[in-house]
Amino acid sequence: MDKSSIQKYNDVILELLFPSFCFGCNKEGTYLCQDCKATLEISEYNYCLCNKNPIRLAPDHHSNGKCQRCQDHKLSGLYSALPYKEKSLTRKLIHNFKYEPYVKDLAETCAGIVVEHLVLAKNNTEAIWENSVLVPVPLGKSKLKSRDYNQAGALADELSQVLKVPVARDELVKIRETAEQMKLSAKARQENLLNAFAIKNPAQIAGKKVFLVDDVYTTGSTMAECARILKEAKSTQVWGIVIAREG
Ligand SMILES: [Zn+2]
Ligand SMILES: [Zn+2]
């Protein structure tokens, strides 16, 4: 048996032992069946980073992923596949991926959704991925310990396989714990994150375009802070890739 046959065989055995169920309709055999996937609104467009009513960008946005009012933002742009709405299937998928029961295998489902967006919005071109690396947004040590894996890292690994872009693993690290961002004001958020991240080996980042990978983009302050220090490490551009964005 060749390697892929063994993998398929293993998948069949695993499915028998631990069957998966669709998070939308409970159908057995998958985490997201085709019918439920079709109800998701996978975006065909790229939008600016703006927090309120983000502006839809023109198809030739690739040199500039931002509108006029967002030019000072540290990120060059953001690729987001879905809206992150209350009580949505998207929320349910991400919640099960990120929190208990930590369905790690959802990484593949979520990466599939992201790739579909990249293709629909015409972001999957050689020019875009040239000389780039995927960098997962890191977790602090205590969170990583309680969760046992970084969902952003699992997503980056899956994306890497499809996009053929390497993952710069453990280069961007979180060096101190921070308070939950959700509870803080915009100014307190920035202070909370200041110097919370570090780059281990700047040579891995220098001269490269970085795609920061995370599950959800909320206010963007975490990605902005990561982008700031990645730029200090001489990355040429820093973009974000997420499954969903709030607002
Ligand atoms: Zn379903
Ligand atoms: Zn904007």
From TrEMBL:
Gene3D superfamilies: 3.40.50.2020. Pfam families: Pribosyltran. Residues 155-240 form the Phosphoribosyltransferase domain. It comes from the Bacteria. Belongs to the ComF/GntX family. PANTHER family: DNA UTILIZATION PROTEIN YHGH. This is Phosphoribosyltransferase domain-containing protein. It comes from Candidatus Staskawiczbacteria bacterium RIFCSPHIGHO2_01_FULL_39_25.
